[in-house]
Amino acid sequence: MSVPPTGSNDCPLCDEEVRLHQVSALNTFFYNCSRCGKFEIGGKLLRTIKELPEIYTNRHILSGYTLESTDSNETALLTVDTAPEIISKKTRLKIDAKARRVLYRIHLRSENMGADVTLDAQVEYPTGYCKGVEEFGLLMKYLADKGFIELDAEAGNVYYCRTTYEGWSEAENLVKELAGSTEVFIAMGVPADETKNALVWAALEEGIVTGLEELGFQPSHRKLADVPRKLNKEAIKRIRESRFVIADYTGHSPLVYAAAGCAVGEGIPVVHLCHKDDAEDWRFDPAEFECILWTTPEQLWMELEKVIKETKELKPPGDA
């Protein structure tokens, strides 16, 4: 047990008193919080978090992230560099993705399908990346309206519920996802220019697909051209089941943007690609993300492989 540089053992994310252990060699502090799960936080962030409003006012997002990592048997590391990135990604979560996290928590608390579960919103609200108990309550009602849970009663901020058959089935799918999917959804458009179109598909077949398979992934690609103007249910299902999504904006197909946006809304990591000659006319601000600009299939795969191996959320099966 050691006292952090703040002089307090309170959790820096939710202010609850917790057990603390310092990892001095890395200048990080380990917390085990009943709300936020297990996580490490860098000494610099710990000292200055109250002076960083863009981080401090979004601590509930970090709580949700650290709790989700704990549920996946991982320990999240928060630093002055990683915290803003996490907040940027997770604030875009759709209500359905938030509600599914709460459903997963109910599943963890259930001894069996239909078992009674009691949830204290004061403790559980980070589960759905909620700012507080009111938002958590809305997610509970959302799950009930969807038919995933039966909500018996509410006493103050305490909820009494049980999963339905549909909710249990959905939660089991979430368990599989958290166990670590090996699927990768690849969204690539079909440029009007025939030469560039041939180059895109050479990059896909000669570089990306083969390389991903050698790393142990199961790539699934979609020719996002001669299809409806919105993603179909099958594409959305595959995105949800993927470990991450690769979005190539060469040709700037609206459906590639839609696939990337769907992944971000579901909390699925996205790797952005674009041929360097098409690195303009973006549908959103390219400064918001890092994009691999490529010219040849060989150069594309070399850079993509490096990103996959160096990014914790993307690492190949068995390397995480």
Description:
By secondary structure, the chain is of the alpha/beta class. It folds into three domains: 19-90, no CATH class; 95-177, Arc Repressor Mutant, subunit A, CATH 1.10.10.10; 181-308, 3-Layer(aba) Sandwich (Rossmann fold). It has helices at residues 43-48, 53-56, 59-71, 82-90, 95-109, 121-124, 133-146, 165-178, 194-214, 233-240, 254-265, 297-310, and strands at residues 19-23, 28-33, 37-42, 76-78, 117-120, 149-155, 158-163, 183-188, 218-223, 244-248, 270-275, 291-294. The strands form three sheets. It has a five-stranded parallel β-sheet with strand order 9-8-10-11-12, sandwiched between helices. A four-stranded mixed β-sheet has the order 1-2-3-4.
**Rounded to an integer, what's the Rg over CA atoms?**
21 Å
Order of helices and strands: EEEHHHEHHEHHEEHEHEHEHEEH
Overall pLDDT confidence: 84
Pick out the low-confidence regions: 224-228
CATH structural architecture of the largest domain? 3-Layer(aba) Sandwich
What is the rounded distance between the termini? Answer: 29 Å
Shape category? globular
CATH class of the largest domain: Alpha Beta
Q: Tell me what portion of residues adopts beta-strand conformation.
A: 15-25%
**Total E-strand runs:** 12
How many domains?
Answer: 3
What percent of the residues sit in helical stretches (DSSP H or I)? 40-55%
CATH topology of the largest domain: Rossmann fold
Number of helices: 12
Sequence of strands across the biggest β-sheet: 9-8-10-11-12
The CATH superfamily of the largest domain bears the name Dehydroquinase, class II
